[in-house]
Design goal:
Length: 444
């Protein structure tokens, strides 16, 4: 019996043996990468190579010719996601000489049926929150915990650092007063191409505020002077493996635009109708699709900061993907008294590495919601961007540090760096201490 239904459509991840013929040349990277992406590679001595080439158009045309519609590709993983509704299509795909294997990553109705944008109402996005005497407002605790105010006072607030925020949506960010000074590189909607990222979900709005909010006395984030690229990669109507393909496409787009840091508060481990898609033994940084993408991004010079996950009270319990990747700075959550938040996912990895790497305030965190007002939320979704912003400020101070060196610096100056564990990792970062350590090493 066929597993295909006539009233549904399907998406398949097609693994290619190779990406096919191309006219691109590593000696001319400006033909397929932005100047900012090329500059980042040059600064960190990363070579442009064939992994940076897109999949051959000839191969995409052949996939289309057998009855599919290519919708996504990963040049790094040599994959193409195609959509179709024909039960015979898999056999035809496998008949192509350049195809290695095929995996179903989505099946449902109306993949492109997104939630429409509401009518614009800018009047409700001006904060009427009470102004505090301190600059940071109600967000002061989350930056104080990381000893980050002193780094700001030293003149490092993220200027010239480029941060991509990959999330589910950034509702009303374009009309919220706390973001009026936001330095926006651009936006990109992977899930619903061509549609605004400022509609639908507001999770990314809150996440962004931990870094980019700049409303003195109400909320100032950890990197208010950084530049931001906002990318929507989630379809919040369900959970399917294609979410990792969306995330991969978002990461590769961020790389091509030339960001320094990716802050991602998304995690994958369980999917609708596929509860056993991943197992705990897969938490090794080498198995999950998103984790493998994260490792490649690191090799391109990007620093990825990821939420560890909120599965501490769930039967999964462990960190989610891609937080298990060796080169990802995985951030867990603590309470205001610096104890592990009960929901915060734990390690270790299946190959016995310490995860999460560090922790930050994730219980009762100050955020700006999609009405432009302060609220308090819980989750590693908010501890991760708080750290992302501080790392951006630290990198601003020492731009010649490599991403891996920066991660090591943050870990080795954290509160329990001498005795890391699977609950808090290396502990709470001390960003100003990391700054002083780096300063001393530079002056030697």
């Amino acid at each position: 019996m066929s597993v295909f239904a006539a009233d549904k459509s399907y998406c398949f991840r097609v693994y290619l043996k190779e990406k096919g013929p191309t006219s691109f040349d590593p000696a001319s990277p400006e033909d397929f990468l932005s100047p900012e992406s090329v500059n980042r590679r040059m600064l960190h001595e990363v070579f442009v190579d064939e992994t940076d080439f897109p999949v051959s158009k000839a191969y995409l045309d052949e996939l289309e010719a057998v009855g599919t519609a290519p919708v996504l590709q990963s040049k790094w993983m040599k994959t193409v996601v195609v959509e179709c509704a024909d039960s015979a299509v898999v056999e035809r795909i496998m008949g192509l000489s350049f195809v290695d294997s095929v995996v179903c990553v989505w099946h449902d109705e109306g993949r492109q049926d997104d939630v429409p944008c509401p009518e614009e109402d800018t009047s409700r996005f001006v904060s009427d929150d009470e102004t505090a005497e301190n600059v940071y407002g109600k967000a002061i605790e989350q930056i104080e915990m990381l000893n980050g105010i002193r780094l700001h006072e030293a003149g490092y607030r993220g200027k010239d650092m480029r941060i991509a925020v990959i999330d589910a949506g950034f509702r009303n960010v374009d009309n919220i007063g706390a973001f009026s000074s936001l330095k926006l590189i651009g936006t990109h909607n992977v899930t619903f191409p061509g549609r605004s990222v400022f509609c639908a979900d507001n999770h990314g709005t809150k996440v962004l505020s931990c870094m980019a909010a700049d409303l003195k006395g109400v909320m100032v984030g950890t990197a208010p002077d950084a530049s931001y690229l906002l990318i929507k990669s989630e379809d919040t109507r369900g959970e399917f493996p294609i979410e990792e393909d969306y995330w991969a496409a978002a990461v590769e787009y961020a790389d091509s635009v030339g960001v320094d840091i990716i802050s991602t508060s998304l995690g994958y481990f369980r999917f609708d109708s596929l509860p056993d898609y991943y197992k705990r033994t897969d938490i090794d940084g080498r198995t999950a699709f998103s984790s493998r993408i994260a490792e490649i991004a690191s090799k391109k010079g990007i620093l990825i900061v990821a939420s560890a996950g909120n599965e501490g009270n769930d039967d999964w319990e462990k960190i989610t993907f891609p937080a298990d990747a060796n080169s990802v700075l995985a951030v867990g959550s603590v309470t205001s008294d610096k104890k592990k938040s009960s929901f915060s996912s734990v390690g270790m990895t299946a190959d016995y590495r310490i995860k999460p790497d560090v922790v930050a305030l994730g219980s009762w965190v100050c955020v700006i919601n999609d009405a432009g007002k302060v609220q308090h939320s819980n989750g590693t979704s908010f501890s991760a961007p708080t750290v992302s912003g501080m790392v951006a400020c630290l990198w601003q101070a020492f731009p010649l540090l490599k991403n891996t060196e920066l991660i090591e610096l943050v870990k080795t100056t954290a509160s329990q760096h001498q005795h890391p564990d699977n609950q808090l990792g290396y502990g709470i970062p001390d960003i100003f201490n990391a700054y002083k350590k780096a300063q001393n090493e530079v002056l030697r």
